[in-house]
Amino acid sequence: MAFITPAILEKDFSEIKNKLTFLRSRTKCVQIDFCDGIFVPNRSWPFTSGGFNDVDFRKIINEEAGLPFWQEFDFEFDLMVADAMENFDVYMKLGPKRMIFHLSAQKNISEFEHFLESLDMYVRDHTEMGLAFRPSDDLAIVSCLSHRVDFLQCMGSDNMGRQGEIFSNQALENLKTLKRDLSGVVVSVDIGVNLDNAPDILSAGADRLAVGSGIWKSPDPIEALQTFQSLV
User: Fold this and answer.
1) Structural domain of residue 127, as residue ranges?
2) Which residues contact 4 (CB under 8 A, 6 or more apart)?
3) Which CATH number belongs to the domain containing residue 152 in this structure?
4) Using the 8-state DSSP alphabet, how is residue 73 labeled?
5) In terms of CB atoms within 10 Å, which of 9, 134, 144, 183 comes out highest?
């Protein structure tokens, strides 16, 4: 069964809390987008307010607080950052259920593969690792790395770090190819998912849809979320 994951990309921690308040009792899993202004042009919290020195960020990683309503959500972190491997332990302190690394952020694929292989078994047992790739990325590399991760994330556009992008036809073809060639692979789709194209994306085999602007830019976000959820 497919699943809808609301995606939150915000510059202010207070806005993340507001959206999580809205999502309480309406969904279990939420994706939080981290954009560092280096790997992608845009910046999101905490990189808009001091990075790892942001006050709220420091409280969480020092275990003085948790992400808002952390008992109620499974958090999925989309790490659109240049240093996801180097700061993996820091992000883990935020308490994710899933972590998503981007293929195009990796300077050395062999080092990245070794990093995935060497992760502590306790971490792997409790946190799913995902690999995100752009429409223009080499599917052969994605396929080779697929057995090192728990799921793949098919990005709907090469333009990452912003919500409201147009979904690429190439992304749909990539999804179809992976679902055909990799037996049992779990694939999420993120960027450009809306109520018009969601049925086609699900028909192509998507297991999860990460939806940002399709919910938050709707005149009625509650109705939009419920409509997306009725599709799966």
Assistant:
1) 3-230
2) 27, 208, 209, 211, 225, 228, 229, 231, 232
3) 3.20.20.70
4) -
5) 9
